[in-house]
Design brief:
single chain; Rossmann fold; 49% helix; binds NADPH dihydro-nicotinamide-adenine-dinucleotide phosphate; seven-stranded mixed sheet; five-stranded mixed sheet; 17 helices
Length: 445
């Protein structure tokens, strides 16, 4: 590691002890940005890198709620308002037992650069709770969401901070949260995105992250005169992002052969076609079952306790969670001939995995670029709410597709190094410049 990066990281670690994922995310960005800042000293003088690594505001609150047995439960709620230089804070809410401050700060930090890359005027934030919706009744989830929003509503608003979904927060949770916000504030506004279409949602928002991830991969493949046609694709996760990534790959002529959840993965060499995907959607979104049940229904392999990276593929689409591909997994992917990784999840590849991709010079789209389609379409949902209009499916999809093409171009602009495109560097610098310039213009705030 470069000495300047080392010194910078020593200060970050001392100031944010124990927040390992936050350190990891900041270090990856610092490695790209510190050399760039050395060449552009105005950012150094203004200490922009130090400033963007410090949240503007963090709110931590108690979330008491009652379970079905009448027992009081206490969860912890968070909202990290990271940076509002180019627009109101924007970023999802995650409900998962692993949630802690360090994880939300890593996600909020990534979100700032990602939102900037979308070309839309959105700052960055992230929030959530250690509440686990898995295994809870609808009534318990509602009780929790209402308590969570009773506090959160004091800190958010359509021109201040606009949360959305993430792991564990889908249409059901957004509905309960929106209902409680409206009831307390007596306002029908676009304060949350990911709403259902009947009450202010946007067509294509549910599809956007997975579709965008595949559009980004398509652009990367194009730089080598290649496409999805006839390719074997491994996908991890089986939630929102994984489902729509699978749909788009199939539409583009590729074959998705794996899906997973936190318990294990399924391998279906025949491919997960539209009919099988409809089964997965019902299983995961309605019945809230486990991916193992797919293997029983379609008579294919289920591998307990493992991730799908040992399966031979051309293209990998990690779409579950952070650090789900380590150095050994990356080596396995490369040894099996994988030459394109497009991240739907946030930071699914460890630093060792990223180094392995870079050394092998494969196509690698980091999450902050490749999964930005979700928040971009949230931005489009906000525009429609402000206009009090709804655009058609085709209009939104066409805008999403164009945004992913523009993000790809921006990454090429800052990441091209001879024949090789370093998308990590491209995304980090491309996202940084706009935020940094806005912060400089707004003074020391
Ligand atoms: P969902 O909750 O819909 O699905 C998450 C999937 O990942 C589930 O299959 C879940 O399995 C699995 N998973 C979660 N945690 C773990 C874990 N610790 N180990 C293994 N598997 C795990 O979430 P999304 O699809 O919305 O989000 C997936 C990823 O995409 C996240 O990293 C999120 O931050 C990122 N993302 C999402 C966006 C969106 O618009 N939704 C936008 C941009 C990024 P199980 O059911 O067993 O928990």
């Amino acid at each position: 590691m470069d000495n300047k990066v080392k010194e910078f990281m020593a200060r970050i670690i001392a100031k944010n002890p124990g927040e390992l994922e936050f350190h990891q995310a900041v270090e990856e960005v610092a490695e790209s940005l510190i050399p760039y800042i050395e060449e552009n000293p105005r950012y150094k003088v203004a200490k922009i890198l130090e400033r963007i690594a410090e949240p503007e505001r963090v709110i931590i609150f108690r979330v008491p709620w009652m379970d079905d047995k009448g027992e009081v439960q206490i969860s912890r709620g968070y909202r990290v308002e990271m940076n509002s230089a180019i627009g109101p804070y924007k970023g999802g809410l995650r409900f998962h037992p692993t949630v802690n401050l360090g994880i939300l700060k890593f996600l909020a930090f990534e979100q700032v650069l990602k939102n900037s890359l979308t070309t839309l005027p959105m700052g960055g934030g992230k929030g959530g709770s250690d509440f686990d919706p898995k295994g809870k009744s609808d009534n318990e989830v509602m009780s929790f969401c209402q308590s969570f929003m009773t506090e959160l509503c004091k800190h958010i608003g359509p021109d201040t901070d606009i949360p959305a979904g993430d792991i564990g927060v889908g249409g059901r949770e957004i509905g309960f949260l929106f209902g409680q916000y409206k009831r307390i504030r007596n306002e029908f506004t676009g304060v949350l995105t990911g709403k259902a279409i009947e009450w202010g949602g946007s067509l294509i928002r549910p599809e956007a992250t997975g579709y965008g991830q595949v559009y980004f991969a398509k652009e990367m493949l194009k730089t080598r005169g290649d496409s999805f046609k006839g390719k074997i694709v491994t996908v991890s996760g089986s939630g929102n992002v994984a489902q729509f990534a699978t749909q788009k790959v199939t539409e583009f002529g590729g074959k998705v052969v794996t899906l997973s959840d936190s318990a294990g993965y399924i391998y279906d060499p025949e491919g997960i076609d539209a009919e099988k995907l409809a089964y997965v959607m019902e299983l995961k979104n309605v019945k809230r079952g486990r991916i193992k049940e797919y293997a029983a229904k379609y008579g294919c392999t289920y591998v307990d306790g493992k991730r799908p990276w040992e399966v031979k593929c051309d293209i990998a689409l990690p779409s579950a969670t952070q650090n789900e591909i380590n150095g050994d997994d990356a080596k396995m992917l490369l040894d099996n001939g994988c030459y394109c990784v497009s991240e739907g999840a946030n930071m699914p590849s460890t630093p060792e995995a990223i180094t392995a991709y870079q050394n092998a010079k494969i196509l690698f789209g980091p999450g902050k670029a490749a999964n930005a389609g979700g928040v971009a379409t949230s931005g489009l949902e906000m525009s429609q709410n402000s206009l009090r209009l709804s655009w058609t499916r085709e209009e939104v999809d066409q805008k999403l597709h164009q945004i992913m093409i523009d993000i790809h171009e921006n990454c090429v602009k800052y990441g091209k190094d001879g024949d090789y495109i370093d998308y990590v560097k491209g995304a980090n610098i491309g996202g940084f410049v706009k935020v940094a310039d806005a912060m400089m213009a707004q003074g020391v705030v």
